[in-house]
Amino acid sequence: MAGSGGEDDGRKRVLLVASNPAVSDQTGWPIGFWWAELVHPYWAFAEVGYDIVIASPDGGSLQADAYSDPEDESGYSAHDFLSLGFKHSPRHAQLLEDTPALGDLDVSTFDGVLFIGGQGPMYTFMGSAVIAETLRTFYESGKPTAVICHATCALLEATDSSGELIVAGKTWTGFANSEEQYADQAAGQQIQPFRIEDRAAAMESTNFIVNKPFASFAVQDGNLITGQQQNSGTAAAELVIRALGV
After folding, report:
1. What is the DSSP string of the chain?
2. How open is the CA angle 54-84-228, to the nearest 5 degrees?
3. What is the value of pTM for the model shown?
4. CA-CA-CA-CA torsion for 99, 104, 107, 112, nearest 10 degrees?
5. 75 Cβ neighbours under 8 A, 6+ residues apart
6. Could you tell me if 121 and 22 are in contact, meaning their C-beta atoms sit under 8 angstroms apart?
7. What is d(CA 96, CA 55) in angstroms, rounded to the nearest whole number?
């Protein structure tokens, strides 16, 4: 059963890392993880029999961004039947009620990791020592290290043990300016404190690329895997699965 342990039964074991709840300084909204970015990779991993653990930097109960909720009155994610099913499955919903803290896990027991986006990571992943250390540990171990959507903000500052940026010399993606512009226009205000694409473009020795707005797009460069936005979670998970040889 996915999420039930399994480090000794021969199955691949993957870690999903989601944001703890926060409040946006920009909008005043409660923010956290994005449903599709958690559920769609979870489903891809579950389908191939992986053992899955959902964790967060601080542990505890998680909260999703309202617009990602398939039952939100906005209707923005009403098409997301996978997340609707996860949300209403008592066994799966319970996985979000008391997540382990990253610092309490032995990450060496995992074969790969996927960092989930949403609005929360722009506040909870940036500047987080435990997020930076987890990224470094997986990346330097040569294990698939996947980061999607706004979680890629952590790659703007994450370094290896020598102090070099993990994305130095790498091709990668993340939430695009065109997508930020669409979201800001829909909300009638600036949602994020900064734009990932702007900061990535200002960095030397790295190649940040984007596809069409909201098209599924994931990039692999070595063992670093990145996905552009919420519609790219499955594509990123499939690259992890391919890297692990199923």
Report:
1. -TTS--TTTT--EEEEE-PPPEE-TTT--EE-B-HHHHHHHHHHHHHTT-EEEEEBSS-B---B-GGG-TTSTT-TTTT-HHHHHHHT-HHHHGGGTSBPBGGGS-GGG-SEEEE--SSTHHHHTTT-HHHHHHHHHHHHHT--EEEEGGGGGGGGT-B-TTS-BTTTT-EE--S-HHHHHHHHHHHTS--SSS-HHHHHHTSSS-EE---STT---EEEETTEEEE-SGGGHHHHHHHHHHHTT-
2. 60
3. 0.95
4. 10
5. none
6. no
7. 8
pLDDT 10s digits, 139-162: 999 999 999 999 999 999 999 999
pLDDT in tens, 27-45: 999 999 999 999 999 999 9
Instruction: Give 214's contacts (C-beta < 8 A, 6+ positions apart).
Output: 179, 182, 229, 230, 231
The whole-angstrom separation of Cα 107 and Cα 113 is 9
| Encoded tokens for 180 | 């930020």
Tokens of 129: 């020592």
Residues near 232 by beta carbon (within 8 Å), at least 6 away in sequence: 148, 149, 173, 216, 217, 218
> Any residues with CB less than 8 A from the CB of 22 and at least 6 apart, and which?
30, 31, 32, 120, 123, 124
